[in-house]
Amino acid sequence: MEDRLTRVEEKIAYLEQFVGELDGVVRELHDGLAAMKREIGGLRERMDRPAEDDDSDDLQAHKPPHY
Length: 67
Fold this sequence. Notes:
Elements: H1 2-48
């Protein structure tokens, strides 16, 4: 009976460690997703700005020479 209890305790310890590691991975993915959302939001803002407000070359304002 004591062997069985020891095995159960070991499994619980491994599962607790696994859940801790999994929590770290989920947090890392959440942070990465939040950063991507911020970056996409910034890119959308840049695309929505009128061309005269943008100092860079606005690709939508210039047609390629073959048009």
